[in-house]
Amino acid sequence: MKQDATRNAAYTVDCEDYVHVVEFNPFDTGGSGNLIAYGGNNYVVIGTCTFQEEEADIEGLQYKTLQTIHHGIRVGGIAWSPETRLDSLPPVIKFCTSAADMKIRLFTSDLQDKNEYKILEGHSDFINGLVFDPKEGHGIASVSDDHTCRIWNLDGVQTSHFALNSPGMSVCWHPEESFKLMVAEKNGTIRFYDLMSQQAILSLESEQIPLMSAHWCLKNTFKVGAVAGNDWLIWDITRSSYPQVKRPVHMDRACIFRWSTINENLFATTGYPGKMASQFQIHHLGHPQPILLGSVVVGSGLSWHRTLPLCVVGGDHKLLFWVTEM
Predict the structure, then answer these.
(1) Any idea what the Cα angle at residue 132 is, between residues 126 and 136, rounded to 5°?
(2) How would DSSP label each residue in 32-62?
(3) Other Cβ atoms closer than 10 A to 21
(4) Tens digit of pLDDT for each residue in 283-315?
(5) Neighbouring C-beta atoms of residue 294, cutoff 10 Å
(6) What Å distances lie between residue 287 and 33, 217, 284, 291, CA to CA?
(7) What CA–CA distances, in Å, run from 275 to 252, 271, 282, 316?
(8) Which uninterrupted H or E stretch holds 230?
(9) What is the average pLDDT across 58-67?
(10) Which domain holds residue 85?
(11) Burial, 269: exposed, middle or buried (Cβ in 10 Å; 0-12, 13-18, 19+)?
(12) Partner of 33 for a Cys bridge, out of 50, 86, 112, 213, CB 3.0 to 4.6 A?
């Protein structure tokens, strides 16, 4: 008898706004609990989450809002800076957002009086992905429907610019070698760039479109995953420029692909909001079927916890958390 993988969220947090995007901080900030940021129509909220899976004396989930930042426009994306620290005095909260006005905003806060932001302008269409350089946090990469990938320094100056053949959908920085960048395009091409030589060094092909999201596996950087059309696809870049394995996953087109931060065989995908709900699935490469199926009324965003096999998805005035086994 097949065990049913459909589950309700293990935990939920109520929010004052519709959640368009949510991101766990992927870096160690030195504090207890895990920083999480989510964005809605007007605000970015910074909070901490501690789960019973990591601290025995907590029942379920302990969530606390640290700061609500007025954003003034719908938040499209959020990227955390590795310079964020909770163990410094005062603490440092640093992240950037993309928004519907095609601008990037770089926020710095000490959770008290200091709350500054800088605007990075240059994209001429919607920004689909942004990420900090994970080693130093001194650079930001962004990709857009304007067929460009741009690199910025923290003063807001553009330091590099790559012309793409179609909209840029995702951008990832190599966790160790900070001169390597992965850019995924809607036409199904994923390219790796050397930021020193400003040249593409390798490319992968999905052979199906539209490619909506791709992610570099940080536990094993030979692995790349993506969703294109209704399928998820996984490459081993040492073997072939074509996917090693692919499976159909979402009826209403797949939307987001994210590798787990702790296990190179674990990943999650979301589908576009269908007639009723958005599908959310967790997959393991050792299993032919998804190991967890969830559904969110209007889901958006997807992020893995830094140290637990746990995912968050944004919903209608809610954050929803699912836990799986390794």
Answers:
(1) 160
(2) SSEEEEEE-SSEEEEEEEEETTT-TT--SEE
(3) 21
(4) 999 998 999 999 887 778 999 999 999 999 999
(5) 25
(6) 31, 18, 5, 7
(7) 9, 12, 21, 15
(8) none
(9) 94
(10) 8-121+296-325
(11) buried
(12) 50
- DSSP assignments along 86-121, one per residue: SSSSS-BEEEEEEETTS-EEEEEE-SSS-EEEEEE-
Structural domain count of the chain: 1
Query: Tokens in use for 153?
Result: 């320094």
Is the four-CA dihedral 298, 303, 305, 309 of positive or negative sign? positive
Report the percent of the chain where pLDDT is more than 90.
84
In a domain, 225, yes or no: no
Element (H, E) at 301: strand 300-304
- Domain contains 144: no
Q: Alpha-carbon dihedral of residues 92, 178, 191, 209, nearest 10 degrees?
A: -20
The two structure tokens encoding residue 149 = 């990938």
CA angle, 303 as apex, 320 and 195 as ends, to 5°? 165
C-alpha count within 13 angstroms, C-beta hemisphere, residue 49: 29
The residue written with tokens 């019973």 in the block is: 52
User: From CA 13, how far away is CA 31, in angstroms rounded?
Assistant: 21
| The overall pTM is greater than 0.90 | yes
Contact 273, 292 (CB under 8 A): no
CA distance 9 to 316: 14
* DSSP states of 261-294: SS-TTEEEEEE---SS-EEEEEEETT-SS-SEEE
Phi, psi for 198 (deg, rounded to 5)? 60, 30
> Does the residue 153 lie in any domain?
no
Is 244 part of any domain? no
Do 226 and 183 contact (CB within 8 A), yes or no? no
* Amino acid letter, residue 193: Y
The answer to whether 50 and 34 are in contact (CB under 8 A) is yes
307: CATH: 2.130.10.10
